[in-house]
Design brief:
The protein is an alpha/beta fold. It has 7 helices and 7 strands; from the N terminus they run αβαβαβαβαβαβαβ. It folds into 2 domains: 116 residues, 3-Layer(aba) Sandwich (Rossmann fold), CATH 3.40.50; 51 residues, no CATH class. It is globular, with a radius of gyration of 18 Å. The two termini are 24 Å apart. The relative contact order is 0.11.
């Protein structure tokens, strides 16, 4: 979801910054339109840290919009901390219980900041997503996000493949002769 959001935001004129602990995912983010990536594990004084990347882009005060798609508590905290005055953090990845994230209410109020949670998608969202992929499939390497497809009869091995984390997604085909 995060890489597709990066591509969609880039297509709409945003300067996208992606934060991910995995170097291969940071590299993929650049192929999906990100202008820079952040290593959340980098030392705070490092150029690869959030502060270093924001400074290099002239965004010392923060970003106007942060979309957090992983659901990791440290990533949620980083998204909130990255906000400029009047900015919005949209949380879409926090669909399972995780550690609590401290929020400074004074900073939120004085900074006119908003945190918005988005959960569940309507059929309209699926239609929009499929339309976007249909229109822009050649602009970004979406195919590299999905493993070679597996028939439903090999679901156990596909789930084992998914657990390795080698692929962003593992493809399943209900009936291999169907496609």
């Amino acid at each position: 979801m995060g890489l597709t959001a990066a591509a969609m935001a880039t297509d709409r004129g945003a300067r996208v910054i992606v934060s991910d602990a995995d170097p291969s995912r940071r590299a993929a983010a650049l192929r999906f339109g990100a202008v820079a990536t952040v290593d959340p594990l980098a030392d705070a004084s490092s150029a690869a840290s959030l502060a270093g990347v924001l400074a290099s882009l002239g965004l010392d005060d923060g970003v106007q919009l942060a979309i957090e798609a992983s659901g990791s508590a440290p990533a949620v905290s980083q998204a909130i901390c990255s906000l400029d005055i009047g900015a919005v953090a949209v949380l879409v990845g926090s669909v399972h219980p995780v550690d609590k994230v401290p929020v400074d209410p004074e900073a939120m109020v004085r900074g006119l900041k908003t945190i918005r949670g988005v959960h569940n998608y309507t059929p309209r969202h699926l239609i929009d997503a499929v339309s976007y992929l249909e229109e822009r499939h050649d602009a970004y390497p979406f195919a590299e996000l999905v493993s070679p497809t597996n028939p439903l009869s090999e679901l156990d091995s596909a789930m084992s493949e998914a657990a390795k984390g080698t692929h962003v997604s593992v493809g399943i085909i209900p009936n291999p002769g169907y496609i």
